[in-house]
Every structure is written in structure tokens, then in C-alpha cells.
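Before drawing any conclusions, I needed to go through one protein's amino acid sequence and its C-alpha cells, quoted below without any editing.
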Amino acid sequence: VGSEMCIRDRAATKNEALTFTGRGTSSHMTIASDASFCPGGDISRTGIVIMWMGSVIHWVCKKQTLATLSSCEAELSASIHGLKIGLGIRSVAEELIGRVLLELQGDNMAMIQTILNEVTSWRSRHYAVRASWARGTVKEQKVNLRHVPGTEIVAAPLTKVLAGPELPKARKKL
């Protein structure tokens, strides 16, 4: 059944492609991250999309390496992974064109507050250390942190199975 669905989707999308359009400003790069908290009851899934000049230049869709105890921890893990990748890509872009502003987008307010504030609990100590790194990076590297509703974040389709009319909508976002 699963293989038939893949073949059907492949046939229906044979003319689809990711293209670099070069629209938008070259001085702005966006990292959109999302996570699905333990979709199969075990490990959360990360989705990251990095866009530059209006086009997708990098994406990640994978299971997280650490078990998380909340959606906040799953989202924090995804955001930090995306931030590390984005900083590397930004450094290459800045070698080519000069200063590039980086924006990290997430749809979980608890994750954003964890990065912005230093208040943590011992239960999430490991994630507090990672959040501390992200907090310092956001302050020192001039990275903007922005909340985007879950229905609008471009990385969301990478964390869940989409069927019916949702799949074409997700493709149009990219």
C-alpha cells in the first residue's frame, strides 16, 4: 500500500521541482524549524527549511537523536540544529556578498521563551545548556528570533504525513 502511494505521488509530481528563483533580498536568510513530538510514541521528528532570496537552499527531515519529554524540548532541539546549519551557510553567503541577516522561525512559544530567558528547571538541564548556546548566539550573532503560526511555517510539512489537499498547499509554500 505504501509503495503504491509513493508511485502514485511520483507520477503525479514528475513535473514538480525546487528552483532557485533569486527573488527577494540577498541580505536576508530564513531558518524555519519545526518538530513533531513523538509521532510514533518514541523519537520526535525534525524539519528544517533554510531559504535565501525567496528560494529553498537547504532542508533537513530526520528523527531527532535525543528523546524529548515535551514538545518544547523537541522544538528546541530542531531550532538549535537549524541554527547551527544556518550559521554555517550564512558564513559562506557573507564571503560571497557581505552581511546577511539571519532569522530563526519557530511555531512554539515555549521554545522561543526558553531561548530568550534564562529560567530553567533541573528536569530540562541538558536542554537548558543548549538553549544557553542559542541565547548567546541570538544575542552575539544578531540573529532574529520570530514566532510563526504552525499553519504558516514552511518546515511543518517535513514533520508529518500529508494527504489529500494538504500536500499541494505545502508544495506551494516551498
